[in-house]
Amino acid sequence: MTDRPPAIIVFEPRRELGRGLAYDTTDPAHRINVPAARMSLLPDQPGDFLEWIERDGAVADDPEAHRPDGNLFPRRHVFGAYVASALTPLVLNGAVQHRRAVVTDVRRHGLLWEISDSQGGQTVADFLVIATSHPSPSAPGALQALEGHPRFVADSTVAGALDVIRRDDRLLIVGNGLTAADIVASLARTGHRGPITSISRRGLRSRGHAPYPQDPFGEFEAAPAESATALVRTIRQTIARANAAGLTWHCVIDQVRSHGHSIWRNLPIAERCRIVRHIRPFWDVHRFRIAPQVEDVLDRAIAESRMEVLAASVGQVERENDLIHVELRRRHAPPIRRHYDAVVVSTGPAHGGVLDSQSWLGSLRDHSYLRLDPTGLGIACTEFSEAIGADGRPDPTLLISGPLARGTFGELMGLPQITEHAVFVATELAAKVRASCDHG
C-alpha cells in the first residue's frame, strides 16, 4: 500500500451517483418490476426503500403506483432518487469521490492501476473494481442492412432513442423481454397507434406477478442438482407440489432464485453452459416479471389486435428507401414477409461481448488481465470475485462486481442479489485494504 490515504473513487458520467442505466430514466411509463417492499439498497434492511418512499412522499403524485393488492410499483426514477439520496452524503463528506467521466484506458504500472478518463484525468489505484453492469444489446447480423436508417433503433436504452418513431409507424421489436415491454409502454404513453410485431425465437413473454402473497416454496440446496436435466425435473416436480397445495409457480421460482448461488456452484461448467443455451429463455420470462401497470398496457394492445407476439427470428432484410422489408422465420411454421416503418432491437444485454463494449475492457483483455467466463455471461472471476487472467490465475487487486460476475455466482441480475454481492465484494476489498495497510 502506498502512503496515500485510502479513498474510494467512482467513475460515473451522470450528475448523481446511484442511478445507473436502469434508474436514470425519466420516462413515467418505466416502473420497477418488483414491489417496492422487496427493493432495498441495504440487504439487512429490506424495507428501507418503502420507508424512504413513505417518509419523503415520493409517489404522492403517482396514484397508479398503488395496486389493488396493496403492493407499490413506483416509477423507476424514484428508486434512482432513493439510491442517490443514500450516496450523496458520502460524496459531500469526502468518503467517496465522484469523477464525472468515462474511463477510457486502464494500464498496469508495477503493483498499481493507472486509469485515464474522458476529462483528461489520470488516477492511480491500488485496487480496481469493475462494476459496469450491462453492455448494450447486440443486433442480429441481418439487421446490419438497416444501418443509417432514420428509424432503426439499435439500442432503445439511449435517451430519446424512441423519439424517431412516428404515431402510425408499423413497428418491429426484435426481442420480447422486459425491455420490449418498456418500449411498448413508452410508445403507448406518447400516443403510438401503429401495429406492433414483437418477436423472439420462442415467442415467450415476461410473466406477471403472483395473484396473492406466497412464501418461497421448495428445497434446492440440500441435494443440489448436478445437471441441467435434473434441475429442470426438480423444479417441475416442486411446482406440481406447490399447485397441489394451492400455490402458483411463482413461489417455486422465488426459491430457486434465493438458492441460485448454491445451485449454480454445484453444476459443472458444461451443465451451466447447457442451462444458458437451452433453459435461460424460460428462466428469464419467469424470473424477471413485468410490472402490472406495464402488463396492462401489453394485454390491452394484444386484445385490441394492435400488437402480436411471434416465435420467429429475423431472416432476409431489405430496405426500399425508408420502407423496411423483413422475412420473419417462424418457429414450426413457414416464413412470412412483413413491411415495417421502424425496427427496434431489444434483445437484452450482450454479456458475451462485454470485453468489446468499451475500449478499456478490451485493453485489459488484450493485456491478459481479463477473459470471458466460459458460459458467456460476463467476465471470468473466482468465488472471491477476483478477475481471472488469460493464464488462469486470479488477480487479488482486480475485482468484478454485479451482473458481470454472473458466470461464477449464477443468479446476479435482480437487485437483492446485486446488493448482496456488492456487500460481499466490499467486505473482501476492505479486508485487502487492511492487510495492505498492515504490511505497508
What keyword list fits this structure?
440 residues, alpha/beta, FAD/NAD(P)-binding domain, seven-stranded mixed sheet, 32% helix, 18% strand, globular
Entry summary:
This protein is α/β, with parallel strands linked by helices. 32% of the residues lie in helices and 18% in strands.
Chart the SSEs and their pairings.
Elements: E1 8-11, H1 20-23, H2 48-56, H3 76-92, E2 96-99, E3 103-109, E4 112-117, E5 122-125, E6 128-130, E7 152-153, E8 171-174, H4 178-189, E9 196-200, H5 228-244, H6 249-258, H7 260-265, H8 269-287, H9 292-303, E10 307-320, E11 323-330, E12 336-340, E13 342-345, H10 359-366, E14 386-388, E15 394-400, H11 406-409, H12 415-439
Helix pairs in contact: 4-9, 5-6
Order of strands, widest sheet: 7-13-8-9-10-11-12
Structural class determined from secondary elements: alpha/beta
Could you give the distance between the termini? 5 Å
> What is the CATH topology assignment of the largest domain?
FAD/NAD(P)-binding domain
Strand content: 15-25%
Broad CATH class of the largest domain: Alpha Beta
* Overall pLDDT level: 94
Task: Domain count, please report it.
Answer: 3
Low-pLDDT runs: none
Profile the largest sheet.
Answer: 7 strands, mixed
CATH architecture of the largest domain: 3-Layer(bba) Sandwich
List the secondary-structure elements in sequence, H or E: EHHHEEEEEEEHEHHHHHEEEEHEEHH
Shape designation: globular
